[in-house]
Amino acid sequence: MENLATKLTVLGVGVLAWIVVTVLIVAVSDLGRGRGRERWQIFLFLSPAVLLLLMGLIIPAIRTTVLAFFGADSTEFVGLDNFAWMFTAPDALITLRNTAIWVIVTPIVSTAVGLLYAVLIDRTRGESIAKTFVFLPMAISFVGAGIIWRFVYAFRPEGAEQIGLANQVITVFGGSPLQLLNNDRLALNTFLLIAVMIWVQAGFAMVILSAAIKGVPDDIVEAAKIDGTGPSQRFFYITLPSIRPALVVVIATITITTLKVFDIVRTMTGGNFNTSVVANELYVQAFVQANVGQGAVLALFLFILVLPLVFYQVRLLRQQQEIR
């Protein structure tokens, strides 16, 4: 016999299907008219995408939401116990703290570094080559980037040959090699993982912001030069305000990517040594420890965090299209 979670999921999907069918009936109700034919054509073209959206996103989202209120085996209704665990359990709090650090640090630093690259490289000799090297990490998957940086942080006992670049530098200056990824003092290892994401995302920020800088009207810049403004004044009072929409898009995009970060943490530390984030922890809870309820509540929490950013980015893009 079906358990309660399955019944509630079926009920939710049924209500959603009823709403969709009702909307479609209203949309094609005047089929005999010209506008009705247009709506029918729109429905015909969009129906495959809508079907895939239902199967790949909406139905799983409903199922996950229902499971968040059930226990480990999804058979016992536990109410808000999983939510209480997420905000009170020590390991869960560390996970939320790490995620907050990622979300605060990564978008700001990545955008700042990308902007610095864009300003320094713009209209210089060898601009295209320099931009290629800066953007190159974007061509590497997060798993590949994690493997590369594991070698950078690699540790060997004192006296042995260090194969990691970081510990080679430390020993050259007379220090002792450190197990960097194991060191959770002041969340050091978390910041070292964040450095990998910044290395990858800075190239993306550089490309978008460089294009925005090139779009700043030359006559405004020339007028500012005639008025006697210096480079720093032109940057803060002309360039930055002009590229503000691009900055917002870059920060929002990197924030969404950072909230969902999984590959780097999983590849480099597996979430050990107090480095886990929400995406990694939901994987551990749901698929390693077989605690479906706690995994579902983390997935729901992540979805709630990402959704407003997605809506904001879509709204911003629409506003930019309307201005054009």
Structural account:
This protein has 324 residues and is an all-alpha fold. It has 2 domains: 4-67, no CATH class; 83-323, MetI-like fold (Orthogonal Bundle), CATH 1.10.3720. The protein contains 14 helices and no strands. The chain has helices at 4-27, 34-67, 81-88, 90-121, 127-135, 142-152, 165-172, 188-214, 218-226, 231-242, 244-259, 263-268, 278-288, 292-323.
The number of helical runs is 14
According to CATH, the homologous superfamily of the largest domain is: MetI-like
Instruction: Encode the helix/strand succession as letters.
Output: HHHHHHHHHHHHHH
Instruction: Give helix % range.
Output: over 70%
CATH-scheme architecture of the largest domain? Orthogonal Bundle
Note the gap between the termini. 57 Å
- Low-pLDDT stretches: none
Summarize the structure.
The protein has 324 residues and is mostly helical. It contains 14 helices and no strands.
Key traits:
324 residues; MetI-like fold; 2 domains
